[in-house]
């Protein structure tokens, strides 16, 4: 039976996550994502996705030590980054560096250790390329900062506030994994050929680069930029609806109720809104826009998706738009690697059929 885009076709059995669109539930390893990430750092959430249980004190210390060690990029990778043309996009540059991350020591590691190495290296590569593209000196990683805080440090050259780190870490933890999305499927297809983990991540990054997958928060940012203040919410949105424009950040292809990630990000914005006017604007805007959509499109039940509050958080921590998709990738690499490991454990190469419709 032909299904365009494989919609509704089950191609994988997984114990990593589940997405229940009708219920509005996202589960990591069978547990609601809200429970998994509550009070957890990036390192703790990543360990849970990779291993299926929470890290002990010793296991967390070991993971943190290895992540810190793999933050150091080799001289040849630094040289490649500096050789790339300035007009190279961040996603293209990152793919190049991940593809080149194939030194002898890395190849000898078990795939679980390779996953840690690539997860640690990706934020460093992203910050390096961003700083080079904007004419700034590279800011070396710090071993005394956690994964999320270190990423912000390398981008801005300033130690982030607790609120900034907490806001971004919530976003990263919520977007680590989301079922059989396009980039995750691409990574599993690649690893199913018995290729290497770096190649699987390059495939995922190439898929994530597409605007239908990894670029959505930019549209929300443009909406918030146009609104600017609470009193302009209604006229801006009514004008867009009158022109038949889509209101970015509302509606989701999978969830038929509220996106659970949006609910948790909204709560984080409410907790931190005194630390950033953009977070406050997003909370107010959601309420008014939802009311307007219910009036204009009754029965559609259009709720905010994860991109809506992701854009508000990115703006609040002064993250430039060109870093949105790379930052999404910094979170999702945990899911990509978890799926690659799972695929290896019971591998069959993906080989779907095609239906010829030519003459």
UniProtKB/TrEMBL annotation:
List of catalytic residues: 252, 307
The reaction(s) this protein catalyses: oxaloacetate + acetyl-CoA + H2O = citrate + CoA + H(+)
Gene Ontology biological process: carbohydrate metabolic process; tricarboxylic acid cycle
The entry's keywords: Transferase
Molecular function, one GO term: citrate synthase activity
GO (cellular component) term, any one: cytosol
Domain of life: Bacteria
Involved pathway(s): Carbohydrate metabolism; tricarboxylic acid cycle
CDD domains (alphabetical): BsCS-I_like (cd06109)
Family under the similarity heading: Belongs to the citrate synthase family.
PANTHER family according to UniProt: CITRATE SYNTHASE, CITRATE SYNTHASE 2-RELATED
Protein name (database record): Citrate synthase
């Amino acid at each position: 039976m032909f299904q365009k885009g494989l919609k509704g076709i089950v191609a994988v059995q997984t114990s990593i996550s589940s997405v229940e669109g009708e219920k509005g539930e996202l589960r990591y390893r069978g547990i609601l994502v809200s429970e998994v990430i509550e009070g957890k750092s990036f390192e703790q959430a990543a360990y849970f996705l990779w291993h299926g249980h929470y890290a002990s004190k010793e296991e967390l210390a070991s993971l943190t030590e290895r992540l810190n060690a793999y933050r150091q990029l080799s001289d040849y990778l630094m040289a490649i980054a500096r050789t790339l043309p300035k007009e190279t996009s961040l996603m293209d540059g990152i793919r190049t560096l991940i593809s080149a991350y194939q030194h002898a020591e890395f190849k000898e590691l078990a795939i679980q250790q390779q996953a840690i190495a690539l997860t640690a290296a990706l934020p460093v590569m992203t910050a390096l390329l961003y700083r080079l593209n904007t004419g700034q000196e590279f800011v070396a990683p710090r071993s005394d900062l956690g994964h999320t805080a270190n990423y912000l440090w390398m981008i801005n050259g300033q130690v982030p506030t607790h609120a900034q780190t907490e806001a971004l870490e919530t976003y990263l933890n919520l977007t680590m994994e989301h079922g059989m999305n396009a980039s995750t499927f691409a990574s599993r297809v690649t690893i199913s050929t018995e290729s290497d983990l770096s190649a699987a991540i390059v495939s995922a990054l190439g898929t994530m680069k597409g605007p239908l997958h990894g670029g959505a928060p930019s549209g929300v940012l443009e909406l918030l930029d146009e609104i600017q203040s609470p009193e302009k919410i209604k006229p801006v949105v009514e004008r867009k609806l009158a022109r038949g424009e889509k209101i970015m950040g509302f509606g989701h292809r999978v969830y038929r109720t509220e996106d659970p990630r949006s609910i948790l990000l909204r709560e984080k914005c409410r907790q931190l809104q005194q630390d950033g006017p953009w977070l406050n604007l997003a909370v107010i805007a959601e309420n008014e826009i939802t009311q307007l959509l219910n009036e204009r499109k009754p029965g559609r039940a259009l709720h905010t998706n994860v991109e809506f509050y992701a854009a508000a958080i990115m703006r609040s921590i002064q993250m430039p738009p060109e870093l949105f998709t790379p930052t999404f990738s910094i979170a999702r690499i945990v899911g990509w690697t978890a799926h690659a490991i799972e695929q290896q454990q019971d591998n069959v190469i993906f080989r779907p059929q095609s239906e010829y419709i030519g003459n």
